[in-house]
Design a protein that fits this description.
- The chain is an alpha+beta fold and about 400 residues long.
- The protein folds into three domains: about 120 residues, Butyryl-Coa Dehydrogenase, subunit A, domain 1 (Orthogonal Bundle); about 120 residues, Butyryl-CoA Dehydrogenase, subunit A, domain 2 (Beta Barrel), CATH 2.40.110.10; about 140 residues, Up-down Bundle (Butyryl-CoA Dehydrogenase, subunit A, domain 3), CATH 1.20.140.
- The protein is about 50% helix and about 15% strand.
- The strands form two sheets. It has a five-stranded mixed β-barrel. Strands 8-9 form a two-stranded antiparallel sheet.
- Helix 1 runs parallel beside helix 4 and helix 8 runs antiparallel to helix 11.
- It is globular.
């Protein structure tokens, strides 16, 4: 593994940081999360037109940039630094890879160029609080997380003409209230041929009701999706085992990207805290000069750097046959939580007020662990996959 970045990767990071510094300041961030879309459409257009961010990891044959997961992770590290509210995670990290992997040629040719151009946003709708299960981050995804043929989740019924109708409900869909396209995981076949399939649903489909939810982390808007006899198009073929394999592979990729994003947020939270303790005075001197404060921030620094190394390695490993995204995500989420918590403590009472942005990083840490964790389950499943705690017979 070559740990150094290429000139192209450095340019992606530099250009994106400059753009976000100008377009995603504290005031604009708050205005964006309070808007109906939950993000700034002008910023999203700039990210798409100037940097090609939605199509960064899509093949050039579908008008993408043709980069790897590493470049996408580095880009998300920068968006994480600013907590930039955008459909990038839902569209480019979760939905687009599934269309690329599972879609028919017609579906890929129709959808992916529009996603790469930023003119089509998408979201992955997984029933219940089962996103980490579906992505095989905290356990195997071969269970009945899509409904299991019973009440709850989303059910799919095939019509006589070969079409499909969906009914049910999905909560906690990232950017689900504004996405123009939904990929909905649904259970089909009843008990006779039970299977989980993925369907393409237009955002303006008849019978589709979308309600934006109040989320702990306002920079990650979520929605409840209700499907009342909604028309859906099967994504690719009727092949449930393949879908589960692709979701598992996507889970590792998404975890690596999310780890990089969390590292960016943790790095920024630490940076802002260091700036503050250098300026805030107590007993006639900057509080950053106190040994106890130095030790606390040194511990956070070590934790963030370790998480950064793990995130970079996980992004590189995606294209090299290793699956370490889950453990890297656990490390990054823990680092973000630690950096955000220390930031609030060392900012004093102002740290958790709406006027200061420190609390936004703490909410991102807590919100991400609720959505993609918790950390101990990420670690436990990674350890199980690595067979760390299996008993072994010793022959003397």
């Amino acid at each position: 593994m070559d740990a150094s970045f290429t000139a192209e990767q450095d340019e992606i990071r530099r250009t994106l940081r400059e753009l976000l510094t100008k377009r995603c300041g504290s005031d604009r961030l708050r205005a964006a999360v309070d808007s109906p879309a939950g993000h700034d459409p002008a910023l999203w257009a700039a990210l798409a037109e100037q940097l090609g961010l939605p199509g960064l990891a899509l093949p050039e044959s579908y008008d993408g940039v043709g980069c790897t997961t590493t470049e996408l992770a580095l880009a998300c590290e920068e968006t994480g630094r600013f907590l930039a509210p955008s459909p990038l995670l839902a569209t480019a990290v979760l939905a687009a890879p599934l269309v690329l992997a599972l879609g028919s040629e017609t579906q890929r040719a129709t959808l992916l160029p529009r996603i790469a151009a930023g003119s089509l946003t998408a979201a992955l709708a997984v029933p219940g609080p089962a996103l980490t299960t579906a992505l095989a981050l905290t356990g195997p995804n071969d269970g009945e997380w899509a409904g299991g043929g019973r009440a709850g989740g989303v059910q799919a019924r095939q019509q006589g003409d070969g079409g499909w109708r969906l009914y049910g409900q999905v909560a906690q869909v990232l950017d689900g209230h504004s996405a123009q396209l939904l990929l909905v995981a649904a259970h089909a076949g009843g008990f006779a041929r039970s299977r989980t399939l993925l369907f393409v649903v237009a955002g303006d489909a008849d019978g589709l009701v979308r309600t934006r939810q109040t989320a702990l982390d306002a920079t990650r808007p979520q929605a409840r999706i209700e499907l009342r006899d909604v028309e859906g198009e099967l994504l690719g073929a009727d092949d449930s085992p393949r879908l589960l394999r692709e979701l598992s592979a996507l889970g590792d990729t998404a975890a690596a990207v999310l780890a990089a994003e969390a590292v960016g947020a943790a790095d920024r939270a630490l940076e802002r805290t260091v700036q503050h303790v250098k300026q805030r005075e107590q007993f006639g001197r900057a509080i950053g000069s106190f040994q106890a404060v130095k030790h606390r921030l040194a511990d956070v620094y070590v934790q963030v750097q370790a998480a950064k190394s793990a995130a970079y390695y996980a992004a590189w490993a995606v294209g090299n046959g290793e699956r370490v995204g889950g453990i890297a995500l656990a490390q990054a989420l823990e680092a973000l939580r630690g950096a955000a918590a220390e930031g609030i403590q060392l900012h004093g009472g102002i740290g958790f007020t709406w006027e200061h942005e420190a609390h936004l990083y703490f909410k991102r840490a807590a919100g991400d662990e609720l959505l993609f964790g918790p950390v101990h389950r990420l670690r436990a499943y990674a350890a199980e996959g690595a067979r760390l705690f299996e008993s072994r017979e010793v022959t003397v």
